Structures are given as C-alpha cells and as structure tokens.
Amino acid sequence: MQAPQPIAVGDRIAAIDIIRGFALFGVLWMNLYEHRGLMMPNDALDHLPTARLDYWVGFLSEWLMRGKAQALFSLLFGFGFANIIDRLKARGASPAIFLRRTAILLVFGLIDVFLMWVGDILAAYAVMGFVLYLTRNWSTRMLILVGLPVAVLGTPVLELAMRLLMGGEAWWLRLWEEGAAIRADLAMRNDYTAFVAELWRSTWVEWWLTPAVLPYLAQIIGRFLLGSWIFRQGWLGNVSGHTRLFARTTRLALPIGLLMSGFVASVKWFEWLPVWVGATVDQVSMLVLACGYGAAIVMLHLHGRFTRLFIGLQAVGRMALTNYLMQSLFYVFGLYGFGLGLMSYLGATASLGLAIAFFAMQIGFSLWWLARYRFGPLEWLWRSLTYGEAQPLRKPAGTAAAMPAE
C-alpha cells in the first residue's frame, strides 16, 4: 500500500481550473450584489445616484449569474471529491484521507463565517462533504438517480413542506430582515469586535438553527452527487475526445438556460404561480445554465480563443481557496466601516464594477504567484495539513512559468 499523496501539478485538468476561475468571478459578483439582502436593507438602494441604472444591471445580474456560479462551484466540488477518491483507491491508500481534507476545509470555513463574511459557503460545503463521503461506493447510476431529483426538487419540496407545517409563514424571513439592518449598522461603524459578535449571533440564530438551512443543504448534496457522476463519465478528463458532446451541450444548454433564467428573473412567482413551481424552474435553470457556461468555456478553450483570459482564469482556479478567502478580506477592508466603507454605494452597478476590478487584481496576483510557487499559499497549507508534512512550495530555479498543459 502506497502512502497517500496529493495530486501533482502536472496531473491537474486545465478545463476544470478555468471553469473554477470563472465560477469564482461569479461568486464575487453575486456576493457583492447580494450584500443588499445579507448586509444592508433594500430601501437604502433606492436613494443611490445609480438607482435607475441599478434596476437594469440588477436584472442582468439575476438573469446571467444568480445561483449559476454557486451551482458550478458545487458541481466542481463533487467532481473533485470523486477525483480524489479515485486516485486514493488507485494508489491503495485509504479514502479516509478525504475526511481530514474536509475537516481542514471546515476550519477555513468557520474562520471565514465567524470573522469575515456571513455569506460563507465553505463551512456548508465541508459539512455536506462528510455526507458525500458516505456515497463513495455508490454506483454511477445511483449518483444520478439520487443527485438529480435532490438537486432540482430538494429545495422546492422542503420549502413547501415547511410552509405547510408552519401555516405558510416563514418566520425566519423576518429574522433575516432584522439581521440585515443590524449588520448594516455595525458594518459601517469602526468597531470590528461588535461586528464579529454579530457574525457569531447571526450564523446560528438566522441560519443553522432555522429550518431554512435544510433546503440549502439538500441543494448542495444533490449537486455534489451530480458532480461525482460527471467525473465518472470521463468527459472533463479528456475534453478533446468529447468535442461533439461539449458542442452539443453548448448549443442546447446555453440558450435554454438563458431563456429559463430570463423567465425567472422577469416573473413575480408569488403573484400567479405556486411557490414550489417557481422554485423548481429556478433550480433547473441554474443547473442548465451552469452546464451551458461550463461547456462553452471548454469549447472556447479547445479552439484557442480568449487564450490570455483563460490563462488568467486557470491561475485563479488553481488558487481557488486563497482567492475565495481573499474576496472575504476584500468585503471586510473594502466595504465596511473599518475599511474603505464602500458598502453604502453598493448598488447593482457598483457591485459589477467592483467585481471586475478586484477580480482583475486577483488574476494578476495569481499569475505572479504561480510563476514562482507550485500552489497558492492556502492551497499549500491545506495540502500540507492534509498529508501531514510540508509540501514543496517554491518552484525550482529556471522552471517555466507557463500553466500546465492539459
């Protein structure tokens, strides 16, 4: 039996890192855009000088990216899980190494949610990563038979059940509104200690101790299972051998996903459709458009278009953990009162502009770092803790700075 070893840099799949980089931009964009619900009351946006433009940019945000970046991220997590388990089994190593890796991710997530950003997803991903481990020996057929209905119907069914059991009133929505007002006030003060205390309170009172967390966790595990199923198909491990598949997926999923998502962004579900119907269409549109985005990126990558952009996205994707937590630091020191205090200007237009500007900085930093080091700083720490020894970090002198070939 061989000792467990991390995936070598040369064994990485370029397309996966590029898609992950794209998803990170979407996560940054949506986290800035959705600060209005988590960190500031909606009525504050009506008085911004960009309010009229914000209406249309907000529609664009809802249409093109809301939920899609997180769907991509979840699918990629499931893909990465299956990849790790497969490699560990091939080497004769215990798959339990994934549990240590997930426990370390949970620590990163707890640091994020309790010290920086109430909208952290790492902690929830880690929690459901432990659940995902129980499916490591499932058949390929079982992954899709369970994953697809849970990913699509888990949220609508659970939300419907909760409303029926509670007489149709989602009492936690009131908690979220009250919490957003509290956080908006604290975030603009120069009192980081009070802000952290609010993060601790809201994480439990508004989220983990309410029924609202159940549909979210169901959505995550369903998408994880679909990501594992995608890995089993071998498509992304040999993208050049599946060109027709990616071309067909792009032609179908991209327009259908855009049409469905545009419909969701345009319609007020509560006025004329049952809530669970709207929620189901919403979940399907997120998955379809996420797959369309991923397939389109693969096709553009195969045809050598946007090479410079894709090199930057690949660099960001290789340092996904570092860049995700860098974004949380940006919220703290760029948006809040103990930093630049930009949150009071954070309409939909400013959200998109800030996302583009900061992500461009992340591309530059990632390219600079990876020209000198094998892994991102937090990726190196994660690997070293997972495998119980310090991994080599600095590249040998004279090593080419180019990204690894597919």
Automatic annotation (TrEMBL):
Q: Does the keyword 4Fe-4S apply?
A: no
> Which UniProt key words apply to this protein?
Membrane, Transmembrane, Transmembrane helix
Give residue ranges for domain DUF418. 231-388
Q: Which InterPro entries match?
A: Bact_Transport_Assoc, DUF418
Q: Which Pfam families match?
A: DUF418
Query: Is Iron one of the keywords?
Result: no
User: What stretch or stretches form a coiled coil here?
Assistant: none
Where do transmembrane segments lie in this chain? 12-32, 69-85, 105-135, 142-166, 252-272, 284-303, 324-346, 352-371
Q: Which domain of life is it from?
A: Bacteria
Q: Which PANTHER family match?
A: INNER MEMBRANE PROTEIN
Name the chain's protein.
DUF418 domain-containing protein
Organism lineage: Bacteria, Pseudomonadati, Pseudomonadota, Alphaproteobacteria, Sphingomonadales
